[in-house]
Amino acid sequence: MNPEQQERYSRQIKLPQVGHDGQQRLLDSQALIIGMGGLGSPVGLYLASAGVGRLTITDFDRVDESNLQRQVIHSHEAIGELKAESARDTIERLNPQCVVEAIDYELDAEELLERVHAADVVVDCTDNFPSRFELNHASIATGTPLVSGAAIRWEGQIATFDPRDPNCPCYRCLYPDTGIEAATCAMEGVIAPIVGVIGTLEALETLNVLLETGEGLRGRVMVFDGVAMEWQTITLPRNPDCPACGQRPTY
């Protein structure tokens, strides 16, 4: 670390779970963020501000005025721009030392595997089940930890799936049926801060994974009710018959 970096991250370096070695680990790490909407916004901002050295961000959508209610990485002036490029510009203004690669198209299966393999951690900020199942498959195939979040209406959830841990479940241990259909924010609505709550926790859990601070959310799902202001934690065991990570995977 150079003197500027030591000053920038000084409050973080003071933490015993980080220190100089941990901060250097973050600077040497690469995170792949899939989706730069409501969840991806705080994830990208906080990972960059915390000093993760390289971010690969993907989104093939464009900024719409209805996004600005909750997708805080984009500005009014960015309406019509590609979200990946808008997010990259904001992150680079926040931390010019963070190397950001913006991908403005949907990754196909082969390139997705390559990108996931190259990353130290993948952060799922998507809004649909097919993408989440595909990310889960890539995570298992490459042995890359996956931090997954979801939010809609006044509710959200977050979990971590780490195929390096033989006892850790995968996303399909939680949702074994690939035919499930997800409600969308456009259909159901969403209160603005709920994506910030879940996205910020995704960023925090991503730092836990990179710093190897402990078990984190492996084997657990945290569910938040924004009306009741209550958290619930659900224990999620690994399913030995899971079609993705079980003894006889079918993918």
Any key phrases for this structure?
251 residues; alpha/beta; Rossmann fold; 8-stranded mixed β-sheet; 10 helices
Main β-sheet, spatial strand arrangement:
3-2-1-4-5-6-7-8
In CATH, what is the class?
Answer: Alpha Beta
Globally, the shape reads globular
**Strand residue percentage:** 15-25%
Label the CATH architecture: 3-Layer(aba) Sandwich
- The overall strand count is 8
The Cα radius of gyration reads 17 Å
| Helix content range | 25-40%
The unreliable regions are none
Number of helices: 10
Q: What is the N-to-C order of secondary-structure elements (H for helix, E for strand)?
A: HHHEHEHEHEHEEHHHEE
User: How far from one another are the termini?
Assistant: 43 Å
> What structural class do the secondary elements suggest?
alpha/beta
Number of domains: 1
Largest sheet: 8 strands, mixed
CATH homolog superfamily: NAD(P)-binding Rossmann-like Domain
CATH topology group? Rossmann fold
Average pLDDT: 94
Structure, explained:
There is one protein chain. The chain is of the alpha/beta class and 251 residues long. The protein has a single domain (3-235), classed as Rossmann fold (3-Layer(aba) Sandwich). The chain is built from 10 helices and 8 strands. Strands 3-2-1-4-5-6-7-8 form an 8-stranded mixed beta sheet, sandwiched between helices. Strand 2, helix 5 and strand 3 (99-103) form a beta-alpha-beta unit. The model has no long low-confidence stretch (mean pLDDT 94).
